[in-house]
Amino acid sequence: MTLATMLSKEEKRLIKEIWERLTPVAEDIGSDALLRMFNSYPGTKTYFSHLDISPGSSHLHSHGKKIVLAIAEGAKDISQLTVTLAPLQTLHAYQLRIDPTNFKLLSHCMLVSLACYLGEEFTPVAHAAMDKYLSAFAAVLAEKYR
Amino acid sequence: MVEWTDAERTAITTLWSNIDVGEIGPQALTRLLVVFPWTQRYFGTFGDLSTPAAIAGNPKVAAHGKVVMGGLETAVKNMDNIKNAYAKLSVMHSEKLHVDPDNFRLLAECISVVVAAKFGPSVFTAGFQEAWQKFLAVVVSALGRQYH
What we know:
Chain A: Keywords: Heme, Iron, Metal-binding, Oxygen transport, Transport. Chain A has 146 residues and is mainly alpha-helical.
């Protein structure tokens, strides 16, 4: 919660607006970010050995969509991030147990995907706000780990 | 020695040949200073860095961004010997500039975001990104190599 409060009112508004706009293309953004992560950081693929994550695969798309929709949901009310993410916290801590270092890797690829799709609109200010939000999101996600 | 596939070499040279260091460099450095404000510690003599707008409009930031980005030319021209090509620069960053080498990694991230925004998804594909980031990672490693 303390991390989420590091975002100013303007930053929260900006983040909420961006994700609202991108919700219709959640599948595209999500699958793009995942693909970039698997390509640049092959170690991340080890968590998906039970799925087909090849480019264009239905697993890649549905999974990417799921992740982006969760990020977009959190953006609707960032001050409530811990409440919104409670079920996902449990899932990641007790079932998925993804090493939290990987959240940073996906966050970076998410920023690259956003930059690709938004171009100049992804200003330094938007980039900074988004980086902070994704860091906060990842930290909240890992809260129940230990 | 770092092994580069033909695809990686092509990706890196293609991207580099389309990068205007005078354009990308200032944007990358601006982002570093805005997204990771603690990096401003190294730029006390640069004048007004108080707001993102001030940073983006700061001529010293722009000039320095161009210099730093231009420094990648050494790597592009010495892809099979990047470690040695940056030995002197590494010593300088350690002994004279006292820059925490983790900052090289942060700047590399910013460069990738700027390149992505510039080229879009059809050019900056997942494959190109992988090659470009591997390239930057080698440069980052070389720059930190001589620290002691």
